[in-house]
Amino acid sequence: MPAIPSLGGLRGRGNKGTVPVRPVPVPLSAYVVDCAVYVAGERLPGRWTHSEAIKEVRKRHEGFVWIGLHEPDAQQIQGVADTFGLHELAVEDALEAHQRPKLERYDDTLFLVVKTVRYVEHESPTTANEIVETGELMVFLGRDFVITVRHGNHSGLARLRRELDEDPERLQLGPSAVVHAIADHVVDHYLDVTGRIENDIDVMEAQVFAPRSQVSAEQIYLMKREVLELRRAVMPLATPIQRLAEGYTRLVPDDVRSYFRDVADHLTTVSERVAAFDELLSTLVDATVAKISLQQNTDMRKITSWAAIITVPTMIAGIYGMNFDYLPELHWKFGYPLVITVILAICLLLYRIFRKNGWL
């Protein structure tokens, strides 16, 4: 029986003998974290596809669908986009990720982008290379659906969904209540992360002002970079949350709008903390640079003092090293002890003067 060539062998032939390898299609279910139908605040039992879920809701004329996706590709998300009528520009943003926090309206759909943050555990802020890790959540809000697209491994919503499943009164407010819960969940994580970063900055501040500390300006700049990454996640989100709190769209009823005002207040607190971190780290950089300059000046004074002391025996030895017959006390038997005594006396005098002035 003839041997069957492997795929690797087929790829290694010339263009005429190459068999194209088609990508294996991945089903949408591989990217769907959860798909649920909610009616009167209660989750309906059973497993649903995205098309079956929205058909059920529209057949009942009540309730909504909540679909959670994790880093889908273009082919997979297109099926969801066609079913729910998502705008192609919003879908493109959801795929590309690396978006700034924003809120956009496309016909009867809102598209919200929020940055998620996670505090990276480390032994000490003075040696850590990474303190904050960011991810992204994209939320599509419609009249009878909410779709979340998650990028990153730390921004899961499974726990939040379980909490909402146990609070049907809250889910009765509709899909905008889910959007509020997500925004509140993200901002609460901001508060937690800023609290832990504040502790790190306190540790670093104590190290900077401690005697003979080893904190470098480079490490403070690294911390400042992490705070800047947090700032990029927090600051741009203020405008979208404020717009949702002020009635930017009818998709957010008045009952939910008041909840967004509370989120906006918490976000303001976070923004103020982050701004204070930035200012404090700038102060620590200035203090570290001043401390380094002071240490360098101290070292330079010590070097200068010892150089002045060493100059005395060098000068005298240089004079007596000249090839002259008539030098003071050249042939006197006590000349050498006298010169050594004079050198030691002058050196000790200079040492005492420099010591008294604080140079040594």
Automatic annotation (TrEMBL):
Q: Does the keyword Phosphoprotein apply?
A: no
Q: Which Pfam families match?
A: CorA (PF01544)
Q: Which reaction does it catalyse?
A: Mg(2+)(in) = Mg(2+)(out)
Gene Ontology terms, cellular component aspect?
Answer: plasma membrane
What GO molecular-function term can you cite, just one? magnesium ion binding
Keywords, comma-separated and alphabetical = Cell membrane, Ion transport, Magnesium, Membrane, Transmembrane, Transmembrane helix, Transport
Main subcellular location of this protein, as a coarse class: membrane
The UniProt entry, under Gene3D superfamilies, shows: CorA soluble domain-like, Magnesium transport protein CorA, transmembrane region
Subcellular location per the Swiss-Prot or TrEMBL entry: Cell membrane; Membrane
Family affiliation? Belongs to the CorA metal ion transporter (MIT) (TC 1.A.35) family.
What is this protein for, i.e. what is its function?
Mediates influx of magnesium ions. Alternates between open and closed states. Activated by low cytoplasmic Mg(2+) levels. Inactive when cytoplasmic Mg(2+) levels are high.
What this protein is called in its record is: Magnesium transport protein CorA
